[in-house]
Amino acid sequence: GENVEQHPSTLSVQEGDSAVIKCTYSDSASNYFPWYKQELGKRPQLIIDIRSNVGEKKDQRIAVTLNKTAKHFSLHITETQPEDSAVYFCAARTGGFKTIFGAGTRLFVKA
Amino acid sequence: SAVISQKPSRDICQRGTSLTIQCQVDSQVTMMFWYRQQPGQSLTLIATANQGSEATYESGFVIDKFPISRPNLTFSTLTVSNMSPEDSSIYLCSVGKQAINTEAFFGQGTRLTVV
User: Fold this and answer.
1) pLDDT per residue rounded down to tens, chain B (115 residues)
2) Is B73 on the interface with A (CB under 8 A)?
3) Chain-centre distance for alpha carbon B110
4) Does A104 touch chain B (CB under 8 A)?
5) Phi-psi domain of B52 (left: phi exceeds 0; alpha: psi -120 through 50; beta: other)
6) Would you call B33 an interface residue with chain A, using a CB distance cutoff of 8 Å?
7) Which of B56, B97, B93, B100 is nearest to B75 (CA)?
8) Which residues, listed in sequence order, are joined to residue B111 by a DSSP beta bridge?
9) What is the spatial distance between Cα B92 and Cα B6, in angstroms, rounded to a whole number?
């Protein structure tokens, strides 16, 4: 069935370093890939998204890349700051309009 | 962006009872989605609420347990029926961004505890 795998489950970086989170999806008909940030006790917030006709998208310190052939997509955060600490979820919208979430990555940015 | 109001924000319920969660959006959206997020876990899609038709449920979720209403393009409800402690979770509604039927914004969630 439809599945999104996300790695790593936990990531610890030093402030100022980069963080990379990787996801793979199973449904080749998936065409939309959002990334969410969830802070403790709060709702998930969309931080960036990418569509299947685009290979890369950047918004300030955040960038996403998509490799449709390999069914991989990644989130890159540069110059990390302590306030980037949160749980990040990748997701893929399938051909049937459903959005399937990855298991999440808990990011710790150490000051 | 869409403004989503979800209520109640939290509740403690007795087992065997039912709770209805409401989701109100400030603009018309075709699709609304209901998710469950168990503590420390990811988001699991329960169902898609379509206006004018029955909700579409994901594997493992059934209408008798999670009946959904979608009376118009700005409102939906999810009922958690005959609750047990295993239903303790956060329930979230979500709506699509702009005209594209993709979920992008979430309500603040309902933290349900069943005792």
Assistant:
1) 678 999 999 999 999 999 999 999 998 888 889 999 998 899 999 999 988 788 999 999 999 999 999 999 999 999 999 999 999 999 999 987 654 556 678 999 999 999 9
2) no
3) 9
4) yes
5) left
6) yes
7) B93
8) B10, B90
9) 8
